[in-house]
Amino acid sequence: MTRQELIKQIFEKQSFLCVGLDTDLKKTPQHLLKQEDPIFAFNKAIIDATAPYCVAYKPNLAFYEAFGVKGMISFEKTIKYLKEHYPQHFIIADAKRGDIGNTSAMYARTFFEEYNVDSLTVAPYMGEDSVTPFLGYEGHWVILLALTSNKGSHDFQLTEDVQGERLFEKVLKTSQQWGNDENMMYVVGATQGKMFEDIRKVAPTHFLLVPGVGAQGGSLQEVCKYGMTKDCGLLVNSSRGIIYASIGEDFAEVAAQKAQELQQEMKAELQNIK
Q1: Of 181, 163, 183, which Cα lies nearest the Cα of 230?
Q2: Burial degree of 20 (CB within 10 A; 0-12, 13-18, 19+)
């Protein structure tokens, strides 16, 4: 998916919602456990219910790898279902890969050739040669971790060098020598609030993947106030707040309601773009 195709979807649907498919069988409705593949059954129901209100889906690999081969089969079936039935939706594999060059090249082959997802989250700590193998695939995106929503983000990401430049700022500046706003996004947690102003000073046009709205307490309005651009420039993810809003047999219906509520909030924010 190209940048322009993504922007078109956002403004046509009046939504920049990404639904996180963090599927945990300990939290899913118990009646689904009778299914041959309860993870896929849950994902399919969530996707069918929320597709009208979102532009992207983000399966988190940890929730599939935890179930071994069966979990990865469920992941693969989920990707195939999305590509067959909802090809206009942007697919993010949240795997946070990153290693020395030849290993990264194999990770890139896995996700961009074998699974053919649109994008992959990548950890930039090991530098250029750990990231550039992912950037060699036309039409696919790298989403670099920049300033995350977890408490521990302060341990390293906000540390300053002798010139007063914070580590996340160095990541943003340096990585723009490797890719551009047509093939690279950044992860910035919704809980960072006003810090989006600082992000936009360094990366004014790149799309930002924003987790942390909903269960983690991030404010959509604050994210939009400081982070939105004329092209929107945001993909705001909600996982638990949507997919586990109900653990009863009405789980998909309630998920749709929660997704629609967020979409309506996003519509109002998009209408503020001048």
Answers
A1: 181
A2: buried
Compute the Cα dihedral for 63, 255, 143, 37 and give only its sign. Answer: positive
Global pTM reads: 0.96
Residue 12, classified by CB atoms within 10 Å of its CB into exposed (0-12), middle (13-18) or buried (19+), is exposed
- Give the whole-number percent of the chain exceeding pLDDT 90: 86
Q: How confident is the model at residue 174 (pLDDT cuts 50, 70, 90)?
A: very high
Please state which of the ranges 72-76, 83-87, 113-117, 154-158 shows the lowest mean pLDDT: 154-158
Where are the strands (E) in the chain, listed by range?
Answer: 17-21, 56-59, 90-97, 119-122, 141-147, 184-188, 208-210, 234-238
The active-site residue, picked from 96, 170, 225, 267, is 96
CB 112, CB 87: distance < 8 Å: no
Q: Cα(205)–Cα(223) distance, rounded to whole angstroms?
A: 15
Q: Which helix (H) or strand (E) holds 132?
A: none
CA distance 159 to 125: 14
Q: Which residues of 192-206 are buried (b: 16+ CB within 10 A; e: fewer)?
A: beebbebbbebbeeb
User: In this structure, what DSSP letter does residue 29 have?
Assistant: -
Q: How far is CA 44 from CA 66, 79, 93, 134, in A?
A: 19, 10, 16, 28
274 catalytic residue (yes or no): no
Asked whether 17 and 259 are in contact (CB, 8 A), the reply is yes
Dump strand ranges (E) for 6-118. 17-21, 56-59, 90-97
CB 147 within 8 A of CB 159: no
What tens digit of pLDDT does each residue of 89-123 get? 999 999 999 999 999 999 999 999 999 999 999 99
